[in-house]
């Protein structure tokens, strides 16, 4: 950007009358109807804006001679050339240069009360130029600490806040101020106030007030129309008090960054957190999204799209909320601590990458996340344990600790990957138990959920030490535990945890070294506990189908592995069918569906079984229960499509020209 010098500045024409009216309360303040028109004749044009006026600026480049100041009962309205729509910026208003010539930053406006209204403008600061920055709007309760008692009213319509530094719009302490942005964009703003120790490059600290390069607020804010935050450095939005920030229309949070020189620079508290390159909310703030929201390609530490600390986020729109290709460490899409998030419309979480840390897309601690509409969690990656001081290191898509995730609608977790020595290709779930602080976790699906093609070293789809419930059926297809001795191709259940199922469940083509689909083991940290379990509800819909799963270790348990003190409780009302599941490698692989190690067991009703099982058909059927080897009854064969033993005749498709559909025994289809 070229910064105009004072020499070629030119005073625009002053037109019209300026008529002032006196108002006593901010609520009744309005822009004067008589408008002063300023034209940029030989740009850039140096102008001074005086309170009490409405200005209309022509197209072109204007430079403020000094910061506009609006106090209680004062009004200042500045409108640029309206090209009836986006992009705003036909009229550019550049922040003043310091009269001292010392490169110090100068604001466009300060506001201590009254009404400041800007429209159809690009409010341009000096970030990225030879100066050290400047530009923006600062709102405070008062100039000198003696509060006038009047809240500020700030209105921006069709304004692009560009290249302001350190903060484009900041309300530091006016808690009852009214901030309204309609069709505004925040682009290339820079809040760059951290420094790093010269000798110890990793030791970084923060200067300046808390905030974000885009909007910092201590009061409610309403964003109307479409809102865009792009390429802001060190945060798009920051709220740290019990305010409500409402996005009434569409929202794009893209390409924002928050990254100190050293990736693990000290983040001493929430005020200086390196999390939240996009939206950051703490102190009981509430972010309310009424329109479509997209969080894309934000980079930094955790929660590059959205970071919550003791805050709340509600996504209300029926349009899909998207978290795409965000990159960072602990939950690049969302990092949430002591917070609650409700998705009342559909969600797509895809292409997010944790380069290190935990949770390829979401990192949750002491938080509740509820999906009340369909969720798709696809192609997220955790690169794994790459540094030795990782705090955790699990969950290709989600890390859930001391937290509760609930799906009340269909969900798909597909092609998520956890690498290196981490756990849980898609999801990793732990209770929180450090010191005196204890909090359980849960993952609960009340509608059908599918886990497809996820992979992780241990627990190809899910690694859990807490309760996981699939109340309405689930499909687990082609997941794999990738470590050389990887366990639980789909789920590795350990610790004090119950993996519970209601509804039909399919395990197909999953693989691991041991426990091709499921491993149940109390684990080293939970020895001799008898609370590590897999439980199928007794309902008639709670069936299961296990086919095509493999364990590369001989006798490793091709479908199910139950280690000492672990257990599986099969309901007896519905069938639990096992087809071909092979354990061992290459040509020596043999049919071996279930392996139960010493002190482990599974039950069908009240009967308990231990040992190795190779079953064709229903493991709990009278003819199979307890038999190490069980084939289909004479005259029947195992039919993969139906995942059950069928009469030989029924195996071949029998055309039925029946006019009346019979409620004949139609076996449940197996798989997708
Ligand atoms: C202002 O900034 C420029 C570029 O960084 C620098 O060369 C100049 O010395 C600075 N001036 C002062 C007074 O700091
Ligand atoms: C902020 O918004 C919330 C929710 O609409 C409202 O309850 C609260 O009173 C507002 N606060 C102020 C200071 O206006
Ligand atoms: C992602 O954001 C960074 C930082 O703003 C930017 O340099 C990069 O070009 C963006 N990548 C894409 C694919 O948009
Ligand atoms: C959790 O957040 C709430 C605000 O939502 C706050 O009052 C509470 O102190 C926080 N608790 C912890 C343990 O951080
Ligand atoms: C998966 O995500 C990565 C990282 O964002 C991206 O480069 C890649 O194209 C995505 N692959 C698919 C198949 O979506
Ligand atoms: C988890 O903790 C919550 C709150 O302490 C409690 O209400 C709930 O019953 C616990 N759940 C389990 C499964 O222990
Ligand atoms: C089985 O799963 C593996 C991944 O473990 C996948 O590569 C393969 O395509 C799947 N095969 C079928 C038939 O689905
Ligand atoms: C194990 O979990 C159950 C509920 O899931 C809980 O009631 C029990 O207290 C836990 N036991 C221990 C020792 O944490
Ligand atoms: C677990 O049980 C075994 C015997 O079965 C015993 O040797 C061991 O000490 C027990 N471990 C704990 C932690 O109780």
Describe the protein in words.
Keywords: Signal. Residues 1-26, 267-271 and 654-672 have low confidence and may be disordered. It contains 1 helix and 74 strands. The strands form 9 sheets. The protein has a 37-stranded mixed beta sheet that branches. The chain has a 19-stranded mixed beta sheet, with no helix packed on it. Strands 31-35-39-43 form a 4-stranded parallel beta sheet, with no helix packed on it. Among the domains are: 1-142 and 154-165, no CATH class; 168-177 and 194-345, no CATH class. Bound molecules: 2-acetamido-2-deoxy-beta-D-glucopyranose (9 copies). The site of one 2-acetamido-2-deoxy-beta-D-glucopyranose (NAG) has 4 residues, from loops.
Topology of helices and strands:
Layout: E1 35-38, E2 45-47, E3 53-57, E4 60-64, E5 68-70, E6 75-79, E7 91-94, E8 109-111, E9 115-124, E10 137-139, E11 153-162, E12 169-171, E13 178-182, E14 185-187, E15 194-196, E16 204-206, E17 215-217, E18 221-224, E19 227-230, E20 237-239, E21 244-247, E22 251-254, E23 257-258, E24 279-282, E25 286-289, E26 293-296, E27 299-300, E28 306-309, E29 312-315, E30 321-324, E31 327-328, E32 334-337, E33 340-343, E34 347-350, E35 353-354, E36 362-365, E37 368-371, E38 375-378, E39 381-382, E40 398-401, E41 404-407, E42 411-414, E43 417-418, E44 427-430, E45 432-434, E46 437-439, E47 442-445, E48 449-452, E49 455-456, E50 462-464, E51 467-470, E52 474-477, E53 480-481, E54 491-494, E55 498-501, E56 505-508, E57 511-512, E58 518-521, E59 532-536, E60 544-547, E61 550-551, E62 560-562, E63 566-570, E64 576-578, E65 582-583, E66 590-591, E67 594-596, E68 601-604, E69 607-609, E70 611-615, E71 617-618, E72 629-630, E73 636-639, E74 644-647, H1 648-651
Parallel strand pairs: 1-3, 2-4, 3-6, 4-7, 5-8, 6-9, 7-9, 8-10, 9-11, 10-12, 11-13, 11-14, 12-17, 13-18, 14-19, 17-20, 18-21, 19-22, 20-24, 21-25, 22-26, 23-27, 24-28, 25-29, 26-30, 28-32, 29-33, 30-34, 31-35, 32-36, 33-37, 34-38, 35-39, 36-40, 37-41, 38-42, 39-43, 40-44, 41-47, 42-48, ...
Antiparallel strand pairs: 15-16, 45-46, 64-71, 65-66, 67-70, 68-69, 73-74
The structure holds 2-acetamido-2-deoxy-beta-D-glucopyranose (9 copies).
One 2-acetamido-2-deoxy-beta-D-glucopyranose (NAG) is lined by residues 467, 496, 531.
